[in-house]
Structures are given as structure tokens and as C-alpha cells.
Amino acid sequence: MMMKMTSLLSVAVLVFLACGGAEGRNMRRLDALEYTAMNCRAHSASLTDFGAVGDGQTSNTKAFKAAVDQLSKFADDGGVQLYVPAGKWLTGSFSLVSHFTLYLHRDAVLLASQDMTEWPALKPLPSYGRGRDAAAGRYQSLIFGTNLTDVIVTGDNGTIDGQGAFWWQKFHGGKLKYTRPYLIEFMFSDTIQISNLTLLNSPSWNVHPVYSSNILVQRITILAPVKSPNTDGINPDSCTNVRIEDCYIVSGDDCVAVKSGWDEYGIAFGMPTQQLIIRRLTCISPYSATIALGSEMSGGIRDVRAEDIVAINTESGIRIKTAVGRGAYIKDIYVKKMTMHTMKWAFKMDGDYKSHPDNKYDPNALPVIQNINYRDMVAENVSVAARFNGIAGDKFTGICMANVTLGMTAKHKKYPWTCTDVQGMTSGVTPPPCDSLPDQGPEKISACDFPANSLPIDEVQLKQCSYSMSYF
């Protein structure tokens, strides 16, 4: 929607008062911004209105915080947008508010500060019980928010650069008191859009919605060195109704990691990840998975639908990670139309992923792995077709594979399939799978299909937003 001049003036007056006056300064006019979003905004201002300097050296943490604080006064009056123009904007962590859009110009770069005083420390996530790098907790993510409604982080493919080498070195040296920050994290929030951005060199995970619902992540490019530690791409964690689509990810860890809490802490918190769509994803990660389910899955994972996935030079295509002590379940997983090029494992299930937050986990908390469906997949240059290792006395059941062709490398393993403590069926799978996944004949080639119903997040209609911005 086109922003009204009265709204512009109200923001300008607010900025004028906050900055102590602007005598002698001229109004500048920006070209109109146009983009699609869950919601458009009635008010908008530029980061430069709050004293920010885009030279890549001046800290703008205070400017971001001042901008969010001042604009929040308009959040309930049609919502607000903070525009980040071209430039290199050095900043530490800052938090957003409800009914807020952060928009990055195509030549805007947010540079994550390497001054650790600009990164507040938070308590561990309640479903984890401790930080993942260090027990004490975690640094707040670069762009953060909690208990929010209607938040959008988008742009014209602007860049967020985490300058992660600074953090990776500290991690490898054991010099971190807290877990490394992520680039974007929203907690206990509803209606979130993260789109049209490039994310570079995150200190750890890139995008982490947690305890949240109604989330759209689309047209995100994520780039990190393939040996960088824990630079997962997109990690929906105890979230409901999520859509991830049209993303390109090169990372040092799983491209998409679906999570829901860790051992006894995740069991007690009891919030699953469910109703998740992943589509049109391209992944490169030679040491990790294209899509991983777990290993932190103690709140449960169910109803995941992935399709039109491309994996290139990636360790595994679809991987399930769990262990004794996790409890809960991973069930009703559907994957189709996946193409894989140069893989160590096409498919992998681990029932012995033994990373635990502490020694207080319940050895009787056994996970249920059930109704896992793979259909219409093709791969080339694969070293191992699958390694499926369930848990003794707790078999993984309902594995269904149909119309799957895996082209093996010339030096592939002598036995391309390894299966223990699993049950299921196959139809039209090459090379022939293990005995615990018997071929049911060509009449079952249409098995393992997606559910017919659509999920609510697929019903979300984006709006065409446009702004003609003037600012001091």
C-alpha cells in the first residue's frame, strides 16, 4: 500500500525530536519500494534518520535499538517499517517488536559486531536445559524477538554477514562461556516472514524460529564454508505451521534441521514441530544432511512434507537422528521428487546419536520412529544407498520407499544397504534393498504418497506492498 504523507510526517517529527532537531537539513526522497509480504505497513523510516553510519566501522547497535524503540510507538497504528539503505551497517544484537518490518536494500549489508559486549547473554532454551556450545546459556541472536506477532525481515536480497570466523575460532579454541549467537531468531512468536535475503558466515545456526507458529521462510540464500562448525541453514524448533521454500544453502552442517528439544528437557517442555512444508530447496553440505530430523527431537516431530529437493555433494539426503533418552516421536514424514548428486549416503537413520545435555536423561525414554515415506527419487554417484540403524527393542517401523533409483559410484560399498531394527516395504527401488524392506512388487509403486489435504500455511496469501518514502 502507498504510505500516506501524514504518516511520513508523524515519523519525521518523532525522529526530529529524538535527534534534537535537524535545522538546515533537506528532505531526501527515495524511489518507491515494492515487495510482497504477509502484511504491509502504514509508517516507515530509514535507519539513517536515527544517526546510523554505513561505513562498516561505526557501531550502529544504538541506532537500531533507537529506531525500533521510536517506531514501536506506531506499531499498533497500521504497523511500521525500518528501511536499511545501501551501505555496510556494523551492529551487535538488537530486538524487533510486533507489527514490524525490517527491509534491507539490495546493497545493504548488516555486519555482525565482533565486540562481545554488544551481544547480551540469555538463559538456555527451556526445552534444551543448557546451551549447545557451553552449559551457561547463549548469546542473543543478531536479529531477535520474543512474544511477538506479525514480524517481517525481508529486502531486495540485502545481506546479513555474521563475520563468523571470529566466533568459529573461539569455538574451536574452547574459549566461549556461552553458546554462539544465530543470525535470526524469534521465540514464542506468531506470523513471521523471513524472505529475499542473503545470509553469510553465521557464527552458528542461521535461521531459528523456536516455540512459534505460522512461519514463512522463502527465497533465502545461505552461504558458509563447508567446514564451518554448526552453521545449519534453517532450523524450525518446536514450531507449528511452517513453510520453507525456494532456498539455496551451502553450509558446514545440516541445510534444514528439524528440532523440538533435548532429552528430559524437551520431553518436559512437550512442544512438537509439526505441519512443516519444505519445497524447492537446493543444498550443498559435504559433511552433513540436506534435511535432518533431530537429533534434538524430544518434543516430537510429525507431519513433515518435503518435495522438489536437490542435493549436490552432500553427505546425506534425508537423515533421522535420535537415541535412547530422546523419547517422543518422529512420524508421518513424506518426501518426494528429490534429486541427489554425489552423496555418501542417500538415506540415513541413526538410533544411536548419543549426544546428551547431561547424564540425567531417562534410559527408558525410547523414541517412536514411524511412517517414514520416500517416493520418486533419483541419485547418482552414491557411495552408500542407505544406513538404517534402529534401536534394539524399539524398531523403526512403517518405512516406505517407492520409485527410487540410486546410481552407485564405481567404488561403492560392497553392501549398499545396511539395515538393523527397522521394518517397512519398498516398490521399484534400485539397488535392491535389505531383507527388512522387502519389495512388494510394481502394484505398490504409488505407495508412500503425500497426504491429500493442504496445510494452513499454504493458504497464506502475500500482499503487494509499496512505499514512497521521504525522510530527513
UniProtKB/TrEMBL annotation:
Superkingdom of this protein's organism: Eukaryota
Gene3D superfamilies: Single-stranded right-handed beta-helix, Pectin lyase-like
Species, as recorded: Eucalyptus globulus (Tasmanian blue gum)
PANTHER family registered for this protein in UniProt: PECTIN LYASE-LIKE SUPERFAMILY PROTEIN, PECTIN LYASE-RELATED
Signal peptide: 1-24
Pfam families per record: Glyco_hydro_28 (PF00295)
UniProt keyword terms in alphabetical order: Glycosidase, Hydrolase, Signal
Record GO terms (molecular function): hydrolase activity, acting on glycosyl bonds
InterPro entries: GH28_Enzymes, Glyco_hydro_28, Pectin_lyas_fold, Pectin_lyase_fold/virulence
Protein name in UniProt: Polygalacturonase
Family, similarity comment: Belongs to the glycosyl hydrolase 28 family.
